[in-house]
Amino acid sequence: MTQIEIPLSAAASQTIKVILNQQSVRLDVYQRSTGLFMNVWLNGIQVVAGAICQNLNPVVHADYLGLGGDFIFVDTQGSDDPTYDGLGSRYVLVWATIS
Predict the structure, then answer these.
(1) What is the pLDDT of residue 99?
(2) pTM for this model (two decimals)
(3) DSSP 54
């Protein structure tokens, strides 16, 4: 298993662009009153829209999309679901592949 930490800042709305598995990936991470959510774009095509971000729960859940892994939020101080104000410190976003 390979794990890569995706850097996030403590902002209520942000867009991150990274290269994963030699593919262009864009992440839109945003806070709503009901929780933290994420959109995932692969090579310019949105493949996940409005996924809830929860502690240790994979975001994508769909191998057939061709991402080659999944995004997982980790609470480094407990087991709470992430909120924007702890991103990049308490809540870490990890890209994990199984291979």
Answers:
(1) 61
(2) 0.93
(3) B
Residues 41/7/59/43 CA torsion (nearest 10 deg): 20
Distance, CA of 75 to CA of 12 (rounded, Å): 17
- CA pair distance 54, 27, nearest whole angstrom: 16
Alpha-carbon distance of 31 to 52, in angstroms, equals: 10
What dihedral do alpha carbons 79, 62, 89, 21 form, nearest 10°?
150
Residue range of the domain that includes 26: 2-97
Tokens of 52: 């809830």
